[in-house]
Amino acid sequence: MPSHVLGTAGHIDHGKSALVKALTGTDPDRLPEEQERGVTIELGFAQLTLPSGNTMGVVDVPGHERFIRQMVAGATGIDVVLLVVAADDGVMPQTREHLAIIDLLGIPKGVVAVTKSDLADADWMAMVRDDIERLLRGTSIEGAPIVAVSARTGVGLDELRTAIDAVAGEAAPRHAELPMRLPVDRVFTIAGAGTVVTGTMWSGTVRRDDPVEILPSGRSGRVRGVQVHSQPVDSATAGMRVAINVAGLDKDEIARGDVLAAPGSLTVTDRFDALFTYLPGNDQPFESGVRVHVHHGTREVLGRVLLMDGAEQLAPGERAFAQVRLEEPLAPRYDDRFIVRSYSPVYTIGGGTVLDALPPRRTNLRPNERELLEALSVRDLSGAATGLLASRGIPMTSAEVAIALGLPRAGVADDLNKASLERIKVGTDTYFVTEEGLDRLLSGTVRELLAFHEAHPLATGTTAGAVRDKVDRRVPQRVFDAVLEIAANRGLVRMTAGEVRHPQAAAAALAEEDAALTTLTPILESQGLATGTVAELATEAGVDIGVARKALTKLVSAGQVVRLGPEMHFSASAVDAARERIVGYLGEHGTMLAKDARDVLGTSRKYVVPLLEYFDARGVTKREGDVRTLRAR
Fold this sequence. Notes:
Layout: E1 5-10, H1 16-24, H2 32-37, E2 44-49, E3 55-60, H3 68-75, E4 80-86, H4 93-104, E5 109-115, H5 122-136, E6 146-148, H6 157-170, E7 181-183, E8 186-190, E9 194-200, E10 205-207, E11 211-215, E12 219-228, E13 231-233, E14 235-237, E15 241-247, E16 259-261, E17 269-278, E18 286-287, E19 291-296, E20 299-307, E21 313-314, E22 319-330, E23 337-342, E24 348-356, H7 367-377, H8 384-392, H9 398-405, H10 409-418, E25 422-426, E26 429-433, H11 435-455, H12 464-471, H13 477-489, E27 494-496, E28 499-501, H14 507-527, H15 534-541, H16 545-557, E29 561-565, E30 568-571, H17 572-589, H18 594-601, H19 605-617, E31 621-624, E32 627-630
Parallel strand pairs: 1-3, 1-4, 4-5, 5-6
Antiparallel strand pairs: 2-3, 7-16, 8-9, 9-15, 10-14, 11-12, 11-16, 12-13, 12-15, 17-22, 17-24, 18-21, 19-20, 19-23, 20-22, 23-24, 25-26, 27-28, 29-30, 31-32
Helix pairs in contact: 7-8, 8-9, 9-10, 11-12, 11-13, 14-15, 14-16, 15-16, 18-19
């Protein structure tokens, strides 16, 4: 089966679709409008058999400037470009723009077909060839073979197939070892089968019954079947043009631009750090923060490119680190390529490489953040895992680091386990963090607690969630709870009854609370089963109502008080005595009504009903209608 994809590029009317038809026997212009107008509007597809016997999927793209969006969607999945230049026209504007996109996408292999060669003499052909060679200099396909062909007469087609075969043999394989990822370029419905998506497999392998996730929506589905060029297959791997029948999703729940991926393998983001290149052909400097069109995979969204460290402009031909902020989410991975087009009028101005797919929202880089971006930009991945942790400064699992870097999890886990890192166990997961990152979280916790106590001198403490929100919202709450446990073990914080406090603060508030505990206990004992509201208890104890509530919560946690509602508290001994009376009555009479319980307990219905419901919930009694009996043991 084909494991590489050939994609066309070039100016409108230069004969791309006619050449694909001559090479493959398949007309890629499938729409009636395309047939009538003779203009490619949507992506077209075919399969090319090469002299070696190998095959390639073929993606034919529109050449008109109005359809650059479709062109980029098709070009992002190709391994070899077939740049088409008509002999009678030579190099034209869309030739240049398409080549710039190919270069920005980093497509390293290509062949140039000079079409309509039967319409030009030898001298003109030599001049066109010279123009093409100059055009290719400094691009990703510099030195690509140039073949003169005629789709009408068939001259040069065999030479072109041979050239494509040779270049395809040099193309690097796709990332089969990474999780499955497929940018969607078409969605349709087949009667009896349901929803079908097509695209080029960017990475991994897909098989029947595999679970899949649609991003950025997060919807889930299952692979019902896989085809490669209309042939059913057991599996398809990276580099193949595939059609996937997706069960569990309707056609309107998937759109071109979505990504079909292995569940949990990608992170949706509204920003990413990148190495951004501003094309040399631009006549104005690039202004940081201007609104642009961002193309990634088969998706286009609006966004802004913000240059790092306060840079305001970028000269044509320059490159720089930048953070790309998006108005709609994407699901990028490290080393992905993207294209940037101006907001209005719309034309290609640059592009670049995704470095950090889920960075903090900032443009001023700390030293370790710059070191990480510099290492990623030259593909120095030896310390990328630990570098990412140092840059993030928060605990992360090996799976999270692997997703952020777009690397296989096994290798990332191995690197993290070998490194000198702090480890935090949270349930069955292990989180890694640098010593500096953990110290930052701990010192931030101490700092925020001191600030809290200064602002609230009468408070005994605050919640763990409130502290986390002040220290670092990026840390999941359950992970921050584990960080608080570390802080408590080191004597940096105290945690009691769901509250966090600084060990040297809140002395006066704690003393007042302790006094309330001492006072409220005998009051509740004396009230028995006719207890007052919290406000009444606070007044009788001579304490603030807020202090009374905290004291009651601690007494409930200690098992000394039973709470049957926000305003109803009984001493545990009074509830135990009530239980014994209820059990005794039922043991003698067998059944009990609420009025019987009122007489037995000697209190009002206001307290009797909550007590009976409490005993029901505890398995002491069983209610059937208005009658209660002892629950069988």
